[in-house]
Prior knowledge:
By secondary structure, the protein is α/β, with parallel strands linked by helices. It has helices at residues 3-9, 13-23, 55-59, 79-91, 111-116, 165-175, 204-211, 224-229, 240-243, 249-252; strands spanning 31-33, 38-40, 101-105, 122-127, 136-137, 150-156, 176-185, 233-235, 262-265. The longest helix has 13 residues, at 79-91. The radius of gyration is 18 Å and the shape is globular.
Amino acid sequence: MQTGKALRALKRPGRVARALCARVPIPGLRRYCVICERHASAFLPFRRGLKDCSPLMLALEVVGGDPVNCACPWCGCTDRDRHLLLYLRATGLIESFRGSRILHLAPEAHLPAILERENPELYVRTDLMKGLTIDLQSDLTCLPFEDGSFDIFIANHVLEHVLDLSTCLREIARVLAPGGFAVLQTPYSPVLTRTFRDPAITTESMRFHAYGQEDHERLFGSDIFRLIAEHGFKADIRHHDSELQGTDAKEMGVNVREPLFLFWKQDQPSPPS
């Protein structure tokens, strides 16, 4: 959900100057955006980079977006958008989009156009809020679709924003057809053994310090894979070092510590190796 913020940030006067400078190629500082397929000398930080990170998130080694190498100076996409596309291509999952029914929750600004080129049978973009990239406004706790309506579900950094996690996960499992899979990227701390949420944390300041961002509702721990799997999924987590060997993370502007959160509906054959 940072993509919109990244695009708006690019329009700020100081940010515009930085983006223009970052577009100029500099020898030894080669960067490449896999989304817009343009070269640059640098990616732009989220806000002020590490200066605006919660100290607790740093101490807990939270794996999420890269606050230092976040926005593309050309299109404004974030590091996690680029990483997701790289994962989909490297694993071959993007090939399964052809002829499939896809539900994309809170879609990024540029990724949908790339996915639609794979010629899915149905591609629905939905979000709680209205927007130019939205086909249908809906609530993840009560999706307006029949059981088994989709083969693929994508939610890139969404689950940390929802209040009722269990209901949302049940809804995702419900609308997925047998054999379907869900990509559920989200920040998490491998240091925490349990996901942390306290209903007394209600203000933006409290959420920023406790969860890492003002609109986050929890901080996932290392139990995240079990929490999701309990709602009818089989975890099939992929990692950068195994799936993206030979990919220069610095050049591509991605976080090597961020895995691909891939989950298959349990009532399907074993996932491909």
